[in-house]
């Protein structure tokens, strides 16, 4: 009897939820979107990629990334290398989720574009190797020996998004993914220093916090 009453009470509360946003809230959201924080640049201007009130443009980037086969492969990549079997060992998929979550919190506190930050956070390791940076260094040595060039996982992440899958992801997201591993505050374009987006700077900061948690967990596990 009590369960039926609880169910009825929950249903009554759900029935009171408005079926549409209030005009005041719609006006506030529209004003925020018109402020210039959601102006995206893409290789191809397509109507399907244009931002709307309910699905801003950078939110579309998030969804493009989440549905990539490369994103599914995160699950099989460990974040660090370990000789011991460890069910608690962080995978790359968990890593990008935690980094994205922390970076959004930082961005919200700074009044930045949280959708852009989340897109960068979720996509920044799509080109990463298994076994963390140890795997990246090993692949880089082999690649350099055979080609004379170098392998950088952040550059490969941009290639995955822009070339391999061609999802027409925004330039802002691609640029954020590219500079995640660069510690400097600027990038060089046409011989001039150009400030990178401050939204992208939230990702390395979040990564430090998340990596600290991983290291503490590994120390606790290994004694």
Q: How does this model look, in words?
A:
With 223 residues, this protein is mainly α. Helices cover 58% and strands 4% of the residues. The protein contains 10 helices and 2 strands; from the N terminus they run H-H-H-H-H-H-H-H-H-E-E-H. The protein has a two-stranded antiparallel ribbon with strand order 1-2. Helix 5 (92-110) runs antiparallel to helix 6. The longest helix has 21 residues, at 202-222. 28% of the residues are buried. The model is unreliable at 183-195 (pLDDT under 50).
What topology does this entry show?
Blueprint: H1 2-15, H2 23-37, H3 57-66, H4 69-72, H5 92-110, H6 114-123, H7 132-147, H8 153-164, H9 171-179, E1 186-189, E2 192-195, H10 202-222
Antiparallel strand pairs: 1-2
Helix pairs in contact: 3-6, 5-6, 5-10, 6-9, 8-9
């Amino acid at each position: 009897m009590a369960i039926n009453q609880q169910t009825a009470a929950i249903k009554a509360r759900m029935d009171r939820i408005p079926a549409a946003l209030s005009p005041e809230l719609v006006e506030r959201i529209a004003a925020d979107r018109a402020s210039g924080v959601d102006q995206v640049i893409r290789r191809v201007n397509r109507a399907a990629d244009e931002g709307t009130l309910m699905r801003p443009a950078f939110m579309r980037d998030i969804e493009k990334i989440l549905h990539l086969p490369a994103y599914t492969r995160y699950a099989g990549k460990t974040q660090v290398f370990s000789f011991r079997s460890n069910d608690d060992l962080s995978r790359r998929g968990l890593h990008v989720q935690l980094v994205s979550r922390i970076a959004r919190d930082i961005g919200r506190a700074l009044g930045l574009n949280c959708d852009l930050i989340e897109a960068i956070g979720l996509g920044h390791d799509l080109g990463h190797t298994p076994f963390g940076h140890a795997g990246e260094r090993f692949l880089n040595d082999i690649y350099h020996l055979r080609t004379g060039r170098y392998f950088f996982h952040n550059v490969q992440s941009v290639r995955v998004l822009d070339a391999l899958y061609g999802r027409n992801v925004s330039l802002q997201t691609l640029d954020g993914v590219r500079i995640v591993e660069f510690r400097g505050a600027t990038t060089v374009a046409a011989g001039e220093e150009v400030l990178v987006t401050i939204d992208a700077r939230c990702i390395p900061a979040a990564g430090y916090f998340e990596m600290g948690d991983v290291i503490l967990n590994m120390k606790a596990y290994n004694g």
